[in-house]
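User: Is it possible to get a 3D structure for a protein together with its bound compound? The compound here is S-adenosylmethionine. I've pasted both below.
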Amino acid sequence: MASAVCGGSLASVLGPCQLRSPRRFPLKSRRTSFERRFLGQKVRASSSAFVETKQPSPLESTVDKEKLSSKQGVLACPICYEPLTSRGDLVLSVDSASGSTLQCGTCKKTYVGNETHFDLTATSGTEEYGESMAFSAELFRIPLISYLYERGWRQSFSFWGGFPGPEKEFELIKGFLKSVLGGNILDASCGSGLFSRLFAKSGLFSLVIALDYSENMLEQCYEFIQGEDNFPKEKLALVRADISRLPFASSSIDAVHAGAALHCWPSPSTAVAEISRVLRPGGVFVATTFLLDGPFRLFPLLRPLRQNITQISGSHIFLSEGELEDLCRTCGLIGFKFVRNERFVMISASKPS
Ligand SMILES: C[S@@+](CC[C@H](N)C(=O)[O-])C[C@H]1O[C@@H](n2cnc3c(N)ncnc32)[C@H](O)[C@@H]1O
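Assistant: Yes, that's possible. Here is the predicted structure of the complex:
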């Protein structure tokens, strides 16, 4: 059960907190209630407690610049985790993937970049062998789904899931990431790069790595970038990889964001363990997902079916903040915090310093 929720950076997102265990906040109008709740004045947070909120100031940061990871040297072989080297000086950016060759000095595998991204999956370069993931991962590899994702699919999360929408989510994310602003950020399971692009354009990070398993989602992200004037392409790199096998050196990443993705991962614990490995001490993980406690509380007979639903769909159903806290703790992350609106939950936890 999640207990100490407020304090630390959540307090700095939401202001001084007088609440230990915020629950669901049933409200009539989602958008305006969200503004009241998270970005406004004094808001109702549970039947018995209130949270004082204030707008987080993104630049009001407590960053220890000495500790920030460097832009270079983050890429590692997904097979042995040893550094990848390139012919010539490779500076990661949207444009540097095309035609690039990365090599692992230890296992000697070569990874070739294509027009849109670096393919750093363990299976990159296979000729005969093929494998497919669970439905929840394969779904997003379908070109039509990748195309529709930012053209209505993602927006629907606000109507049925209580997601506040990209701009407000971004404000909350920045609040959680105050201590690592100026460093690099991995947007894990970035989809078509909705948040990766916001991170890059904000100028708040030295490098944004947009990572997804779906090559078609990455292609969409590339196309959105090409369609924008003055996009800071030197701030962003697109990488195809499996969340369970991250192609980064241990302790090389300052921040990891995973929007609406935890429930899609084949093994959330393997994924969060990988995130914990690549985060540097003091690095911050922030993620959003759905909590489907409503139907399962209403119909307790559904509970035993949860495993079966996961096995069939590959999608993990989280029922409480406590489960997410336990997941983070068991993967070595501390200082769990969360904010919640209906089924939407944003969590944050850090790698111990
Ligand atoms: C619902 S989308 C979230 C996209 C975006 N982060 C957002 O906030 O809208 C979930 C993403 O998880 C990705 N995904 C699923 N399994 C994955 C895996 N094993 N490794 C990396 N990404 C994965 C999918 O390709 C998809 O783009």
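Residues 1-62 have pLDDT under 50 and may be disordered. Residues 133, 137, 140, 154, 189-191, 194-195, 212-214, 217, 242-244, 259-261, 264-266 surround S-adenosylmethionine (CB under 6 Å).
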